[in-house]
Amino acid sequence: MAAELTCSVSDSLESKCFNLRLQHSVTNNLHGNHCIETDVPFPSGAGAFRCTANYWPMNCNRITISVVVTRTNRQIRHNVPAAHIDLPGKTGLPVPHDIMASITRDAMPVPAAGDVEGGTTISVRCDVVERYCVDVDGHFTALCTIAVSRSWPPPPLPAPPTLGRDISVVAPDLADVSFRVEGETFAAHRLVLAARSPVFKAALYGEMAESKASSVVAIEDMRAPTFRSMLDYMYHGSLPVAVAATLEIDDAALKEEFQHLYVAADRYGLDTLKEMCEEVLCARVSVSTVLSNLVFAEERTCTKLKPRCLDFLAVGENFKEVAVTSEYFDMVMESPGLLAEVQNWFKRPRLSS
């Protein structure tokens, strides 16, 4: 008794409008949380996401319809900028306005297996559907619209300007400041650093600037590899090759590298570098990194990373794996407030499939 699905109106790689034709006359005796699920073909989602239409024929004398996008590739995320479901009347004309007001809409889709990216849900009384929507053949139709766009990993950044690269390659002998970090010395050009970072500008040219005659500036509380990566970014405007290479290694090593780089970027006012680091951390959230990333996001007020971690933990299979780790038990002891937030996020009301 699968739902009948016909696609109409429009169809593109990024969005889809479709009619979900439901056989109410056969399914109206089903009760509880029994769900009928139908795959919605989405060419651009191959290997990256899955779109499904879900129908609960009877649940507390209401029917529920949900269109949901779930991620099938953990390395790629998508946004769902638009999702909507309408119920036309049995004649094809709109249902009376006062009746439509009884429909409950929720921007949070009923979760399905896998990482939920987005979608929408409506719930309506069964008697309303039977009176106004079910036709003589015992069917009714839901008009569904869903739009999906890729957001993780982020799209490539525009080609950076080459002036900083040219200076670093062509004029290394014109470097006029050096930095000492963990015993390593890094030569640089004051003008480049000041142009990139307001903090360096104040330190090197402001009223509180150190003497230009000073040959070496000591940098405390930073790893030498992190300073090297930050310096490379300031000259080239992109992630350095050495750091980008960590994208190919394990999630834990990547997390540590980019957390350090995020802190350095925050310290020196490099907002774009901060955003790049947060994007990478979001794209590689996993069982081994989610809790430390969550704590980091809470401490640093990372507006993208924190909800990404909570969304990851809201998937039952992920939570079960994380809950048996020593890191989870450490959070129980050290961050009870954050743990409560995780549990509340996980316990958000939802229907079972």
TrEMBL record:
Which residue numbers delimit the BTB domain?
175-243
InterPro entries per record: BACK_BPM_SPOP (IPR056423), BPM1-6 (IPR045005), BTB/POZ_dom (IPR000210), SKP1/BTB/POZ_sf (IPR011333)
Q: Which residues form a coiled coil?
A: none
Q: By its UniProt entry, which SUPFAM superfamilies does this protein fall under?
A: POZ domain
Name the PROSITE patterns on file: BTB
Which pathway, per its entry?
A: Protein modification; protein ubiquitination
Q: Which Pfam families match?
A: BACK_BPM_SPOP, BTB
The domain of life is: Eukaryota
Family listed: Belongs to the Tdpoz family.
Give the protein's recorded name: BTB domain-containing protein
